[in-house]
Write the structure tokens for this entry.
Amino acid sequence: MNLWNETKSVPVSREMVWAAYKKVKANKGRAGVDEISMEEFDADRSKHLYKLWNRMASGSYFPPPVKEVGIFKKDGGTRKLVIPTIADRIGQMVIKDYLEPRFEKIFSPNSYGYRPNRNAHQALDSVRNNCRKTDWVLDLDIKGFFDNIDHGKLMLALEKHVPENWCLFYIKRWLNTPVQKKSGELVQKQGKGTPQGGVISPLLANLFLHYAMDKWLELKHKTVNFERYADDAILHCKSKAHAEWLLEKIRERIADCGLELHPEKTKLVYCRDYRRQSKYPVVKFDFLGYSFQPRTTKSKKTGKLFLGYDCAISISSKKRIANKMEELNIVGLTFKSIVGVAQFLNPFIRGWVNYYGRFRKHEMNSIFQLLRKRLIRWARRRYKRYKTSVNRAYKWFETVRKQFPTLFYHWQIGLCG
């Protein structure tokens, strides 16, 4: 690091690169097209960081191609993500850290995704409150959003807030970075798209939708409450007629911005509860892994049950957790005791509960009943005395729970399983 100096044409300092490196390292992540892992990068860290800083500070940094990978979506399809190299992720983080504070000053309070000090639970809280106030929801889904962001329109938004040419030319280079397919083929961009997986992509996406949606709604439709998390948005309408009218307006607006609402996934939803008893076919929508729908609720004041409209973990999220359990191969774990199994599983369980247990935690009980079955199967495979008797295995499990009530994280907070 002592090799570095500040006599460069672009104001990228060594401190900026070092701060970006620490964030990228904390986020972990896989190697890019150069196949250099974080461990390998760290083994020769000074050389890698000096080279990146030297090139960024002189304006001569050109990003390498990004590596494409596919992940399965909940609807059965595949989402294409990209992995930049570690050095490129650091470079993107430098610019992101530099620009984000000024964008935060203009972004809407109704935007929650990929922003400092804002999160999904805050968005869900807002949706819950607004569903109680208004009868209808517009559940918006933009078709292939990240793949279809128009570079020209995005650059216009950037130029409005970024006078620094060195920032703009680096962003242009990242937008035009070719994608390396699994076959090794390099695919060039065609003037649109910011790849999911890039460090700077969420910031650019938020800026694009700030003008395409947030600012437009706040100026043209001031009475409409809404929440946006990245490209997922929920709009609250007073009546069916209002919702239908607004849907057409926003469809036109999105089209003007070079995007398209997904025809199947975008829908109107009626928030039916004990006060709102009209008969409409669609009364449920999913948002950020939770399902909003009519639910039996207990009054805090009287203790009586009534029909409310609230959220809990969605069916698709439960399936995703069940698939993760399958992937973890709980039955085949080789730990000598249940204590080792608990220590291995608790970080996963804590993550599931902390996110999906924020609202109506008891709805997660079915997940942990599934976990209990897998743990009993583990015990029957591990201990000979339980191989021929399921009942004895269940009794053993209940004894463990009574003797060690804090062994598993979900036991500590009173969930079943």
Remarks:
- The radius of gyration is 25 Å.
- The chain is about 50% helix and 15% strand.
- The mean pLDDT is 93.
- The first strand starts at residue 66 and ends at 72.
